[in-house]
Structure formats: C-alpha cells, structure tokens
Amino acid sequence: MSGSSGPEGRPGLHVEEIVEAEQVVGERAQEEVALGEKERTGARGRRALTTAAWTAPGAVWLLFFLFAPVLMIVLVSFWTRTVSGFEAVWTLENYEFLFDSNVYWDQLWNSFWHSLVIVALALVLGYPVAYFLAISVTSLRYQIALFIIALAPFWTSYLIRAVAWIPMMGRRGALNTALQEVGLIGEPLDILLFSDFAVTVAMLQLYILFMVAPIFFMLAQIDRSSLEAARDLGANAFKTFREVILPQSMPGVVIGSIFVFILTMGEFATVRIIGGGTVSSVGTIVQTQVASVQFPQAAASAVFLVLAMVLGVFVLLRFSNLREEL
Amino acid sequence: MPDEQTVTQREGAPTAPSRTPSGTGLELKSLTKRFGDEVVAVDDINLHIAHGEYVVLLGPSGCGKTTTLRMIGGHEEPTSGDIVLDGQSLLGLTPDKRPTTTVFQHFALFPHRSVRENVEFGPKMHGISKAERREKAMTALDMVGLGAMSDRKPSALSGGQQQRVALARVLVMEPKALLLDEPLGDLDRLLRLRMRVELRALQRQLGLMFIHVTHDQEEALSVGDRIVVMHEGRIEQVADPFTISNLPENVRVASFMGDNNIFEGTVTSHEGGRVSIDGGDAQLRALAAESDARVGQQAVVSVRAAAVQVGEDARDANGPNQLLGQIEVVEYLGDLVKLHLAAAGRRLVAKVPGDRFPEFRGREGSSVQLSWKEEDVRLLRA
After folding, report:
1. Contact A236 B198 (CB under 8 A)
2. Which CATH architecture has domain B2-99+175-246?
3. Domain B259-380's class?
4. In terms of residue numbers, what domain contains A53?
5. For the whole prediction, is pTM greater than 0.80?
6. A98, B152, B318, B323: which has the fewest C-beta neighbours closer than 10 Å?
7. Distance from CA of B83 to the nearest CA of A (A)
8. pLDDT tens string B200-257
9. Which one of B112, B158, B194 has the shortest CB-CB distance to A247?
C-alpha cells in the first residue's frame, strides 16, 4: 500500500493492484475463449447439426400448427365462396364486403378496447396477488402452497368454469338469491349475467392467472437483499417498489398482458355462454360465419383480427425490452 | 499496540480518523434480539465503537454477529436494549432514515441498472440533482477503480468488480457508519486477500467507522482495529488483534481462534508468580497472579501453536512445559510448517518456520521433543 498516503492523498483503491488481482480472472477467461475458438473451428458442423436436431420438432410443430393455418386463412380470404365451402378462384369480394360492414369494424374496435380494459383490470388486480405471493410470503412452503391454490381453477376445464357462471350469476342464481336474502337488493340484478359487464368479469376471472403467473415468476427472482439495499440507501417502501421491484417485474407484466390480450381478443366461447345472445365480439362474428359455411368471409374477418392482435402486442412490447431483460 | 500507532500517525491527514470523546460514536446498550420464544440470537450486548474505528464482529455462524449488524442498520428490530449514534437513539428508524449503510454479502446490486445508476441510487433517493449525483457517482467509481465500466450492467462484471460497485454505492452516501456483512465471502481466495487490504486502506483514508462481520479469523486480524469475538449471542472478548491472537481470555476464544493447544488440569502450587498445573500426562507451568489461580482449583491453559518449540534433543520429557510428541501429519503451508502431533494422550499443533520443512518431510510417526516457555502458557477463564 505504498501509494496509500501519496501526495494526492485521495482516498481510493489502487488501480495497478486491482489490475493485478483481476489478472487471474482475466487469464482464466482467456483460456476459456481459446478453448471456445478451438471447439468452434473443429466441431462447428457437428454443433450446427445438433442445434438443428434440437430445434426440428419445435419448428415442425410451428410450421404445421401455426404458419400453415395462418397462410391457409390468408389464402382462403382471397378465394371465392361456394355453397359447400370455397374454390381457389381469386377475388377481393370478401374484403369488399368487410370494408362495407360497419358492424365488423365497430366490433373489432370494441373487442380491441374490451381486451385492453381486461388487461388493465387483470394487471391492477393481479399484480398485488403476485406481489403478495412472491414478496410478502417469505416461507417457500407457503409460497408454493398458495400458488397451487391460485392455480386451482385450472384443475377444471375452461368451459365448465364458464358454464358455472350461469347458476352462480343468473337472475335466480346463487349470488342474486344471497343478496336478496341479506336484503341488500330488492329485485334480482340483471347485470350479473348476459351482459357486457358479466362478460368482462367472467373473462377477468378466467384469464387473470395468465397475468399473475408471469409477474409472480419475475418477482420471485428478485434478490431480496437488493430490496434491503434499496431501503438502506434511502428509499422508502414506495420508492423501493417503484425503483427496484417494478422495473424488474416489467417483463412479467408485458408477457402477462400479451397473454391476456391475445386470449381475450379472440374470445368467443365465454362471450357466447356468459353474454347469451346479447353480447358479440369479433370472435363470435367469425364463428357465426364459419357456422354458416362462409369460410372465405370468416377468413377475411380473421385476418384483421390477427392484424389487430399483432398491433396490440407490438404496442405492449414497447413497454419493456424483453430480449435484454429476461 | 501497533494499531494505535498507525491511527495516530495518520492524524495529520485531512480525513484522518479522529478518536472521539465519549458521548459520540456508536453505543450498543444491552442489545438483545429474540426470534420467537426459544432463540436468543443476540444476548445483552454492550459495546462502544468510536468514529474512525474499524471493528470486526467475529464468530462462528449463528453467533449473532450478523443479527447485531442488521439491528444497527435497521433491518432487524431489537427485542430490547438501545442503539445510540452520537447521542441519538436509532430505534424505530427505518433503514432509509439511518445514517448507516450496508455492504451486503452477495453485493445486492440492482441488476436492471447500470453500474453508474447503481451508485447514483442512494443520492437519487435523497433528492440530489442529476448532475450532482452523477458527479458523486463517478468520483466514487473512480475511487474503486471502476470509472471505465460505469455503463455496464452488474452482470457483465466479475465478482471482485461487483464487490467494488457495492462499495462505491455505499461510499457515495458518506455514511456515519459503514456496515459490512461478510463483504468478502463471495470472492475467491486471491481476491479476498487483496480486497481486505484495500478495505483496510480505504477505511484509514476515509476515517469512517467500519463495522465488519466475518467468520474468518485471519480476515478479522488483518483488517480490524478491534475484534469483538462473539459466541451464542454473547461477546466473549473485545480486544485489538494482537491481544485476541496472543492473549485469548477464555476457552471459547482460544479454541475459535484456532491453533491454540488447550490443556486442563489442577493447580498444584503457586509461588513467586508461577503456577504449576498437573494436567495428568502433561505438567505445565505458567506465569500468573495470585488471584488468578488457587491451589487445588481446576485450571485451563492454552499454548499457541507457534509458541511450541519442536526439537530432536531428548531432554527430560516429564519436566514442566515439556512433552514427547509423535508426528501424525506434516502440513507444509509455504512460509510455515504445521505439525499435527499426538502427545500425552491428546492432539497438539505446532507451527515451525517453513524452511524447516526438509527436516520434517516424511517424518510422520517419529517422535520429537516439544517444549514451550512459561510466559507462553496462557491461563484461561473457563
């Protein structure tokens, strides 16, 4: 420490010594790099082959169940409708019909906003749940137990859960009866079923876990001592949340939002069951067209639904640099 | 004490530690922490730490050293007792309200922020303007030699560099007391040896109160002005490193510090400032005051491994402070040789200079003459 009382007298660690200390680390790293290079030149072909082999099943899967159907939908949307289906004759008729239809655009716009509202509600209601599970519960055993309980709805099929809303929320359902018994309401509430409100609440209940889970996993990864460090450095509880917890959970927020957005945007089953005949969505429009064998028309409607979803995902991705942060 | 001299030498420097009169500094008063009804993590600790002092809390895991540190930092509330800094109690203050900052064992850097933003965090939380906090952060980073890496993310740094970011992040806060919780625990050995010297130098230059928690005896001796040896929530001994190493007060300190040979026996005579102790197969003689040992009492003594002289000349093996030992293992450690011996039905350790290694190489199983001076026999409290 010859320099420690040097003329500058400036407190500090001494760079030469640090460099010396780091040299060992550096040398080790260099060895690794050298090894890596050797491997790359010698076995590059074999490694590429291995990589291809590992990705092949996934690629085939995506090709057949995602790219092919989407391509098919786009193709069919430009084909001509026949009585029993469609034939491969190019036409813009389907789109002309679509652009003339105010109902479709209103519905697309509605579904878009509706989904965003559900995403926002799921975030507002789901984040505290994820926070509680990941941060407030300190025992790992309770954490796992509570998370499994949160997953419990997924033990039954999605349709059963949707159908279960009818005896729960109907005019003469459990909730209305209970409220009447207690005397909070005189007449049964009609809004609880076959209404926009009911569809929103039901979707929220069905999909909120897709928001909670990714946020939970991001929050659970946060080093708790970094929260203590934040407190130690002068952040109060709120600032610790805003400056340390929230930024680190953003990838979870974005992924959860994409899940909920995509899933609710294309929804038709819940809308049908809970909404009765009173509520419709782009999904129900497409479904109706399919049911009446208007495949090319349905395909054209679906194309814009997919475009709207892509647009939504694009907007959501602006909130976080997933590739860097995950 | 050599350490005191070092302190006074530096008093001319502008940032030199000023030994403060009583009333200032950090005072732990009957500090106690219980977890539930059963566990007493910290048991009635009283300790005064002056500004500019480097104090090490040393002990095995579970001895309460980290809990004590966390209570000072505000991360744990004491069950009873008080923590007073410069006459003001810190009790009830959350960590952000205390003039202390902590270096955590695993660095606890913010992974989503760059190195500079990590260091800027504290000043930012205290509402310091962007330009000023940037300047402070860069000064602190230059101080630890990381100015060139300010835009990197912590994950792109080596362990030693992350450690230095953690240091810069607390130094920028200009705390009254810097708390270090096993700060070198995550580093590999070579870096640890280097960093402890850096820590020591940094503390000297800043003149700050450092409170450093470790379980590593050598690390404690290397950095501390004073060492607080803890065991099961209590303080066993508070002293400068030289005293802790050479004059342990009791059995627990002697055995925890390691390389002490401990003998038990009965005091057989006491005359002229010397006590004789009959330890069965081993006869010991020590220097001791009248009050420390009475004839007929049980006594425990320790002899440092380095004080044990190892020779071949067969003197009277039954004399006081002499034993015939058998070498079990010869451990060569570079500048010294550690001999693990069996003597008088017990295991002993002796350290001899490294250049004597050829003399002992391959000598496992052979007998050697062990002896030590009576002034090296330390009478311990039980």
Report:
1. no
2. 3-Layer(aba) Sandwich (3.40)
3. mainly beta
4. 11-60
5. no
6. B318
7. 17
8. 999 999 999 999 999 999 999 999 999 999 999 999 999 999 999 988 989 999 999 9
9. B112
